[in-house]
Amino acid sequence: SFDVNVMSFNTSLSMVIKMWTYTETSIGAIARVRDFENNTKSEVKPIESNTPPPGWPTSGAIEMRNFAASYTESSDLVVQGINLTIQPGEKLGICGRSGSGKSSLLATLLHLLEFREGSITIDGVDVAYIPRDVLRGSLNTIPQEPYWMNTETVRFNLYPWPGDTVNDATLIDVLRKCHIWDTINEKGGLDVKMAADFLSHGQRQLFCLARSLLRKSKVVVLDEVSASVDIQTDSLIQAVIRQDLRDCTIISVAHRLNTIVDFDRIVVLDEGRIIECDAPQILLSRPDSRFKELYNL
């Protein structure tokens, strides 16, 4: 009896210590959130109050005029002197050496940087005056690092937007297009919760691509979507992009330049400036082309 009581006491003590540790961790997390809320300046500006037309963007025309941006309102410019007109439905590839400003230029389309000079318009609407959450919700973005909520189901993670629903047949169809429905079906289908290791890395990117097919937008932003996947998965991703997003304006930062060599135009950046912009075959035909140099590496 004494041994049983000692074992019971040890178990209880262990549980108390564990719960105390969890409590300390949680209090620390709450303190950090409160500190962030109290000391971090909101990115929202009073001028960002215009509401774009219903269904915007409707065609996907983008224009940057003498545009410059930085990470904060007082820091050095990371993109500058950008003049670029992108036609509706055009496929534009962005490349350059590491640190050239590729991802920064892409981030400006989502107003993740502070606008310092010039303007960006999408279908004639100046995005500097649109609430940032509205802007980001109106564009279709596929990041380099795929994501989902580990506490939610496949159904929720595939279509998390409130306000309307999508039937099962449509959800399964996009998963089939992205070649991951069989895997998900074997694991329990649309209503199974997605743990962190639910899919392999390549399948995670295909899942995010499937999500983007449900997100109807005329502007698609791709940030090195195939940089960390194998060649086979990359081929699947590129095939889906060209087939199912062919009517959209696509702006893609590419790590593997062969994925954008068939695009309409290529922009090459250096130190946040455009140094080349033309059709890829034209750039490849020039002996002194920076794109040709990068392509042949």
Automatic annotation (TrEMBL):
<dbReference type="Pfam" id="PF00005">
    <property type="entry name" value="ABC_tran"/>
</dbReference>
<dbReference type="GO" id="GO:0042626">
    <property type="term" value="F:ATPase-coupled transmembrane transporter activity"/>
</dbReference>
<dbReference type="InterPro" id="IPR027417">
    <property type="entry name" value="P-loop_NTPase"/>
</dbReference>
<keyword id="KW-0067">ATP-binding</keyword>
<keyword id="KW-0812">Transmembrane</keyword>
<dbReference type="InterPro" id="IPR017871">
    <property type="entry name" value="ABC_transporter-like_CS"/>
</dbReference>
<protein>
    <submittedName>
        <fullName>Canalicular multispecific organic anion transporter 2</fullName>
    </submittedName>
</protein>
<dbReference type="GO" id="GO:0016020">
    <property type="term" value="C:membrane"/>
</dbReference>
<dbReference type="InterPro" id="IPR003439">
    <property type="entry name" value="ABC_transporter-like_ATP-bd"/>
</dbReference>
<feature type="domain" description="ABC transporter">
    <location>
        <begin position="62"/>
        <end position="296"/>
    </location>
</feature>
<keyword id="KW-0547">Nucleotide-binding</keyword>
<dbReference type="GO" id="GO:0005524">
    <property type="term" value="F:ATP binding"/>
</dbReference>
<keyword id="KW-0813">Transport</keyword>
<keyword id="KW-0472">Membrane</keyword>
<dbReference type="InterPro" id="IPR003593">
    <property type="entry name" value="AAA+_ATPase"/>
</dbReference>
<dbReference type="InterPro" id="IPR050173">
    <property type="entry name" value="ABC_transporter_C-like"/>
</dbReference>
<dbReference type="GO" id="GO:0016887">
    <property type="term" value="F:ATP hydrolysis activity"/>
</dbReference>
<keyword id="KW-1133">Transmembrane helix</keyword>
